[in-house]
Amino acid sequence: MEIASAEKISSLGGPSMWIEWGNLARQNKACNLGSGFPNFSLHPDLKEELHTAAENPVTCWYPRAQAHPRLAEELVATYSPLFQREILPTETIVTTGAYQGIHWTFEAFVQAGDEVIVFDPLFDAYIADSIITGAKYVSVPLMLESNSWVLDKELFANSFNSRTKMIVLNTPHNPTGKVFKRDEIELIAKLSKEYNCLVLADEVYDRFVFGGYNHIRIATLPGMWERTITLCSAGKMFGVTGWRLGWAIGAANLIEKLFRVCICDTFGTSTLMQEAIAGMLQRQRMCSPPKESYFIWVEKIFAENYSKLKKAFIDANMPAVHTQGGFFLIVDCSKRKFDFQDSSEYKSSDDHLDKKIARGIVNEFKLALLPLSLFYSPESKVRPTSYLRVCFAKSSETIDQAVEIIKTFH
Ligand SMILES: Cc1ncc(COP(=O)(O)O)c(C=O)c1O
């Protein structure tokens, strides 16, 4: 007889969308702009830091659970100016990627009966973690108006009640590329104080904000340090998602709750990676002249990639929504007619337009993109179905290959 899983596992539903769409890209050996990770090789500075770290015998040992001391020190030095306060080592904790930071925050603060406000479209881990912890997620859609995504403030304000425990704010935002504006962040802060809620500030793309936009850290607003956990990702920051390293920053009493989850979970993450990333962060902080920093280097690559791709899609009659930050470009596929849309298979499918087009593009042109409708919570009342998410955080070679493919669209 089959062993029954815990109910929370069955309520997660079928396999994650990443598996289905990842398989489709692999089966087609596609140029992959669907998955959201940088694919360029290790930056020479990081390679050097990794080699140096590997020579240090300490990096073979278990880490100190909360953070490898050198990384804790470096987080203090790097983030104190960014948060405009003297951060203490006890106000940081290292995680196995920001993914784990999200999970620990839910585990530590959320339970059955609580409500969590999320913005649709979204990074799907927030939904999975709401389900796992028995909380109810309440989704507030971001609306596309005049080529940018905006928060419906009235709808957002009406989503609060006495059960609201946490708000998940992801800025810069995956998948839309929105950078939340000051007035939106101030409203989130005001309501979180009014209803005594925690804010999970997922800021994994904080280093990737484009001209004219400012990344505002909600934890720096008055009265918000005490109620915000900010999550960062070394993987996104330095193009090493495979290293699985991130960290959470917040008031010591909040971080201490994550530590409680940490010690009954992984009890720390790779010492070697922590040492290498500490070295890399230190290099960026000390970099002189600053224009030689990794961040400037990567920003230039992403800006070039973005404009090449945007132009290619516009030429292919797939207009793009302006990206303000992060790794993604959103393109409209409703204006473009592809030959595969005449096939009987296409016509008989009752999937959303974006799914059918993304499938057609990967099967016929070997270019993997993701339908935006995948990023909406199941209950969302708003679900645009004519947009595709395109990741531009890739090597120049991958982008050039993609551009050549887009030119052949027919
Ligand atoms: C918004 C957001 N948060 C968190 C993560 C997970 O980051 P990490 O790779 O550090 O676990 C991702 C990854 O795509 C993301 O897009």
Structure summarized in a few sentences:
By secondary structure, the chain is α/β, with parallel strands linked by helices. It is 41% helix and 16% strand.
- pLDDT averaged residue by residue: 96
Taken as a percent bin, the fraction of beta residues is 15-25%
Bound small molecules, deduplicated: pyridoxal-5'-phosphate
Query: Biggest sheet: strands side by side, in what order?
Result: 2-9-8-7-6-3-4-5
Instruction: Estimate percent helicity.
Output: 40-55%
User: What's the name of the CATH homologous superfamily of the largest domain?
Assistant: Type I PLP-dependent aspartate aminotransferase-like (Major domain)
Query: How does the overall form come out from the CA principal axes?
Result: globular
The major β-sheet equals: 8 strands, mixed
Give the tally of β-strands. 14
Query: What is the name of the CATH topology of the largest domain?
Result: Aspartate Aminotransferase, domain 2
CATH architecture of the largest domain: 3-Layer(aba) Sandwich
Written as H for each helix and E for each strand, in order along the chain, the element string is: HHEHHEHEHEEHEHEEHEHHHEEHHEEEH
CATH class (first level) name of the largest domain:
Alpha Beta
> What is the number of independent domains?
2
Low-confidence spans: none
The number of helices is 15
Q: How far apart are the termini?
A: 52 Å
Based on secondary structure, the structural category is: alpha/beta
Radius of gyration: 21 Å
